[in-house]
Amino acid sequence: MKKALMISALITIAFSIAGYAQDLGAPDSLIIGTISAPIGAPSVMVPVYAVTDDSVITLNLPLRWNSSDNKINPGGVYFFGPLLLWDEITSTIDTANHRVWIHGNHDTGGDDNPVMNTANHRQQVMLIRMVIHSGAANQFVSLIPYTDTAHGAPFFALQNGTTTFMPVIVSGGITYQSSGVDDKAAVPSGFSLEQNYPNPFNARTEIRFTLTKKSQVSLEIYDLLGRRVKTLVSGSYDSGIYAANWDGTDFQGQQVSSGVYFYRLKANDQTLSHKMVLLK
Q1: Rounded to an integer, what distance in angstroms lies between the CA atom of residue 218 and that of residue 227?
Q2: For strand 192-193 and strand 172-176, is the pairing parallel, antiparallel, or unpaired?
Q3: Structural domain span for residue 93
């Protein structure tokens, strides 16, 4: 068990690049995904993967982003796998300076928590939600590491209590293309229900659907036994493209268990459905 005093010492060492040790074995890495944002999407999720052959107990990841018109920015970070069980795992978003700081410690006292060791396999450890504001121009928004005196440099610290090093970081981001003047994206081409994203998901997922005419709409979640878990949308909607979010809770606001769920869209006399996977 690593106590808070040892973790504090690790952070102090890691803030000085000169204090880094060399990575042991194959280079550990963090891989930031690169994705394309669908036209009209209010937000997209950028996955971040870890590949390690070590037992990582401390993570420090300062990132910066560049949006040419300041209309695309992070809106939150969602954690997966062992990071969910760490005593400390947080993100701080500084929109004014285009900075997001992600940092965590697996154990600050009390019960033991899992380390981050992927056995050299790629494992998704977080999602960065990128918010796309109205009027955003066509652009590529990169997510890349940085170093400063306030947040230090990216680093991993290992369970042995003596090794701190900078992992290999593969930068990523999103490509956004708005509809052009001659596009007819404002006029939906067909009634549709898209696959939720992300899928599988942990904390939150987005479901997008398209209506070609004004309709009485319901979007509902069901479990494998056909029991209705939650209603996300209910009411009259004009034609257009819509998005709804599910946070994995039921009608009472209680978290449901991991597993396969179905979501069903009904618009007037038309019905579409897909399945999705909730992982915890």
Answers
A1: 15
A2: unpaired
A3: 4-176
